Amino acid sequence: MRALEQALREIKPLDEKAMAAARARQDTLTKPLGSLGRLEELSIKLSGISGKPIPRINRTAIVTMAADHGVVAEGVSAYPQAVTPQMVLNFLHGGAGINVLARHVGAKVIVVDMGVSSDIAPHPALLSRKIAYGTSDMARGPAMSREQAIRSIEVGLEIIEKEVKNGLDIVGTGDMGIGNTTPSSAITAVITGEPVAKVTGRGTGLDDRQLAHKVEVIQRALAVNKPNANDAIDVLSKIGGFEIGGICGIIVGAAAHRIPVVIDGFISGAAALIAVGLSPRVKDYLIASHCSVEIGHKAILKYLGLRPILDLELRLGEGTGAALGIFLVEAAAKILAEMATFAEAGVSERDDEEAKPPVKDG
Question: How far apart (Å, rounded) are the C-alpha atoms in residues 247 and 179?
Answer without folding.
Answer: 16
